[in-house]
Amino acid sequence: MASILTSASFARSMRSAWRIRLAHFGASGWVGLAIVAFWALAAMFGPALLSRSGAAGGGAVFAPISAAHWLGTDYLGRDMLARVIEGARYTVGVAFLATLLASGVGTVLALLAAASNRWIDGGLSRTLDTLTAIPSKMFALIMVAGFGSSIPMLVMTAAIIYMPGAYRFARALAVNVNALDYVTVARTRGEGKLYVMLREILPNIAGPMLADLGLRFVYIVLLLAALSFLGLGVQPPAADWGSLVRENIGALADAGASVIVPSAAIASLTIAVNLVIDNLPGGVARERGVR
Amino acid sequence: MGSPVVVDNLTVSAGVATLVDALSFTIRPGEVLALIGESGSGKTTTALALMGYARRGCRITGGSVRIGDVDVLSLAPRQLRALRGRTVAYVAQSAAASFDPSRTILDQVVEPACLHGTLPRGEAELKAIALFRELALPEPETIGRRYPHQVSGGQLQRLMAAMALITDPDVVILDEPTTALDVTTQVEVLRAFRRVIRERQVTGVYVSHDLAVVAQMADHILVLRDGRMRELAATEPILVAPQNEYTKSLLAAARPAPRVVAAAPYTDVLLRVHGLSAGYGPRTSEGLASTMILEDIDVELKRGQSIGVIGESGSGKTTLARVVAGLLAPCAGTVEFDGRPLKPTLDHRTRDELRRIQIVFQSADTALNPSHTIERILARPLQFYKGLQGDALRARIDELLDLVKLPRNLAQRLPGGLSGGQKQRVNLARALAADPDLILCDEVTSALDTVVAAAVLDLMADLRRALGVSYLFISHDLHTVRAVCDEIVVMRHGRKLAQVARADYERGPHHPYYEELARAVPELRRGWLDELDRQRPAVAA
User: Fold this and answer.
1) CATH code: domain of residue B137
2) What residues of chain A lie within 8 A of the CB of B417, using their CB?
3) Given this model, what pLDDT does residue B1 score?
4) Which one of A103, A156, B17, B186 has the minimum C-beta count within 10 Å?
5) In what order do the strands lie in the sheet with B5-14?
6) Do B311 and B226 sit in the same domain of this protein?
């Protein structure tokens, strides 16, 4: 941001910028923000607040909702509430990390491609196109077969699978911005590649890239859930929401809660993230000329 | 024969803002009324309201519009659809954006006739061809088979007029139809428009910001500002004896006076371009580009001097600026700056060389980064070239804003919150921040209204006087160039045709193409186009 300001006034302007930004939030944005905050807090502090651990079994199998088990029990008689809250750590943590990695790396490479000569651009684009050509589930299977299933491995796999898409999207945007006069002016000023990438182009593609980030987050949550469902994701006894759905699939016919709750958790998180991103006032504010 | 148009107390609002405020006027059948004013004056909004249409977010809140016997504003949507394109036709400013690029021209031109069922398809096509001939389009029989990208801008504008006229409408609305065209093309289009409007006796509404153009086309002129009528009179009285102050300022701006900078005789050469050739695309074995734009250009610019480069689009004038700026490497020839040869590309030039040559682009909308505040835009060159910080930086930014006559509180705004003229001033201020010796101005006033453009030209002359900068001033508008430049370089098809000094502007004879350009600039009096018609019968451009 504005490097001309001293760091104190910079922090102040950032704070006020955020306050104004939040003031633009519509009702749906606040709902989304509340749900995301809820799951983030649940992932961070939830397990410490629970009276029983999700690992403790021994109750009735597929028990219905009761005072003792607010969300019933799973196929081994474990408390579902504890399982879902512990699962939030994996789903929220892994998916967020993987999304940030995928979109971040994709955007930076795209900026590099747009601001560089056509050799670098061509090389990067073709390499990443090749990566896109590998079916995502197949790639995940190979990764798991090769390196075993672990949390860092899952993050890396999901990030690698979804990075080329983010790259293509960001590159298409960045190439357009790169052709505009203000970028030309920056070049004739003698600005370096990094300045052009980060200061001139990035702020003007950030809005669409955030929208893309929301979509990509949804994809990654679903990919992780699918991998867990196949037994390739988070390994038992730990479980993310996808694994919870798979474990308790037997309850689908009757008990319900133990399979519906993790499904609903996945849905609520993905929808909430998109509500938040749709309410970020980037483009509109810029057109009106206010921050 | 056209219908009378009677507008009474027309009011259009957008939210709380009133865009058109209680406007009343009458157009007699077969006459042309011009709506003139700066951007944001409500002239297009008024024109659209004549068709019962308000743009998104706007609402026609009061008044009435009668075309013939029809009360337009009381019509149901279905009846309005029957009216539009049939009784009232519209010709938009940018024909290029109004044609569907994936369909042939003829297919689109006959569409209104087929849609309204006025003619069967076969007859409509014959009529379209007759219209093409009437509008002096080349190859009227076959031009309709082409796609929009295969014809020129001026031709496309006339084709759009053919589309509007194919249903024999009673009223035609022409919304800045020649604003995006070169002067030479504009003359041809104006002649064609005027002939068809006169011969068909349609009632016309001509929206424009150019008084000289309007003087040739309109019987009456309505001057609009901020949605209110300032003056309404016949064309002649408005041009000769305007009553309203705003009309007077419009007239003054339309006749740009030379902004003479009393200068010492220019002595040392700042920029010398010698034998310059440049082009785009891969290089051939002889070192030439596959598409050559510039060939063998020589220009000499002395310190403090201002040279205008003039030519129609495609003449290579912008490419010349790009080569000087280092954005495009020349194929042959040299560029010398202050006695030292300049390296062909940006990467090899020193930071000081870059600082001393600044470029200002035509469209302030794309020349300012929409996500940076004005303060940040102006601060960057100061930090980059001079390492200014803190209070010194802030003081210099304020100075720059004062220099281009912008209020200091604008510094915290984003470019989206500024008007076109303000943006162009910021654009200039950014170039000035580098303390350059030479500013390359690429059509800096072309996108601005007459009054705003005149103010920017004044500012540029002031700056030259105060700071001693030199300009290489690129434009297609001879008036503008004459007003600010000491010498004019005339370019066509990538070659320099002539160089004319200020002292010789009025003295001829000059190169025939310069004469043609000079003739093509509309003059601010009635009958100018008629005289031109008599001198030279219309030819298919």
Assistant:
1) 3.40.50.300
2) 288-290
3) 61
4) B17
5) B17-27, B5-14, B59-67, B70-71
6) no
Q: Is residue B225 domain-shared with residue B355, that is, in the same domain?
A: no
Q: Determine what percent of chain A is predicted with pLDDT higher than 90.
A: 12
Q: Looking at the predicted structure, is the pLDDT value of residue A284 above 60? A: no
- According to the model, what pLDDT value does residue A288 have? 43
Q: Are residues B135 and B212 in the same domain?
A: yes
Contact A289 B354 (CB under 8 A): no
Task: Report the complex ipTM.
Answer: 0.74
Helices in B202-360 by DSSP H: which ranges? 211-217, 235-240, 245-254, 317-325, 351-356
Q: Could you list the residue range(s) of the whole structural domain that residue B193 is in?
A: 30-53+83-254
Residue B228 and residue B308 in one domain: no
Q: Which residues of A touch B414 (CB under 8 A)?
A: 285-286, 289-291
Cα distance between residue B504 and residue B510, in whole Å: 9
Determine the average pLDDT of the residues in B122-138: 89
- Number of domains chain B is built from: 2
Give B354→chain A minimum CA distance, Å.
6
Confidence of residue B33 (pLDDT cuts 50, 70, 90): very high
pLDDT tens-digit map of A86-95: 888 888 888 8
pLDDT at residue A102 greater than cutoff 90: yes
Residue B358, chain A, CB below 8 Å: the answer is yes
Looking at per-residue pLDDT, the higher value among A128 and B506 belongs to A128
Query: Which amino acid, residue A36?
Result: V
Mean pLDDT of B221-229: 88
- Is B369 within 8 Å of A184 when comparing Cβ atoms? no
Cα–Cα–Cα angle for B374, B379, B384, rounded to 5 degrees: 145
Kindly report the nearest CA distance between residue B441 and chain A, in angstroms: 12
The answer on B238 and B130 residing in a single domain is: yes
Residues of A in Cβ contact (< 8 Å) with B359: 184-185, 188
Any domain includes B5: no
Q: Which of A182, A191, A199, A204 should one mutate to test binding to chain B, selecting the residue with the greatest count of B CBs within 10 A?
A: A182
Co-location of B243 and B108 in the same domain: yes
B87-107 pLDDT tens trace: 899 988 777 788 888 999 999
* Structural domain includes residue B528: no
Residue A53: pLDDT above 70?
A: no
Domain membership of residue B74 (yes or no) is no
Question: How far apart, in whole angstroms, are the C-alpha atoms of residue A212 and residue A206?
Answer: 10
Same domain, B180 and B311: no
Q: Is residue B328 part of a domain?
A: no
CB contact under 8 A, A182 and B367: yes
With cut-offs at 50, 70 and 90, classify the pLDDT of residue B541: very low
Q: Is A289 in Cβ contact with B415 (below 8 Å)?
A: yes
A3 and B358 within 8 Å at the Cβ level: the answer is no
- Tokens 């299933």 belong to which residue? A149
Same domain, B312 and B432: yes
Residue in chain B closest to A196 (alpha carbons) equals: B369
CATH number 1.10.3720.10 given to A86-288: yes
